[in-house]
Amino acid sequence: MNKIRILYDVMNTMKAKTEVKGVLQVQVEKDQATILSLQNEFEKNLLTGKMKTKVTASLDYEGKTQGHHAEDAAPCPPERTHHDWLHHMHHFPSHRRRGLKEIFTKWTFALSLLNALQFEERAGKITVISLNANDLPEDMKKLFSERINHASRRHDRRHGLIREISSIDHLDGKLSIFINPDYEVEKVVVTAAGNQLDAQAQQHDLKANAQLILIREDESDAS
């Protein structure tokens, strides 16, 4: 099975899409208790940039319980309409000149990910592309963890839950992408687990599960 060829076909197929519609579900647990639950039903026209979302979320953290429900339909800025979602998947933005060492570090990281990818054929001609953090070299595990922590801190430094996520030690995770015979992404599943020390040096177990289900255009029309 040619890894690069399959990835190339998937990227080309998804790039040709004019609409993306699906459901994102996220659940975060701390010491086996759910502290965050989120569901986002979304639909975006990649030609016009128009996007519809229906978000339901609940947060139970530090003795505070909050719920949220919102529906929104808004246009996207013109400069960010056509396939912008795919563009950001494979570009590394930078506001400074990158040195040669940094360039090779990024390429080494990308090649390590490619080498660690596992491809499995299942019933119905479904191909599952998976990446297990345990299959990465130790230096790549460290770099991967640093990038996740950096992204979490940059997202919102004020929120306690974000700070906890960014301070996870010994992060372990798995990514699974389900591809149909037409080289379309049907589902993406991410699981992550780790432990975290609080200010009193007490250890807590954190787990996160996320699932993205994409609805095909013909299925959307039929419904």
From TrEMBL:
Protein name listed in UniProt: Uncharacterized protein
Lineage: Bacteria, Bacillati, Bacillota, Negativicutes, Selenomonadales
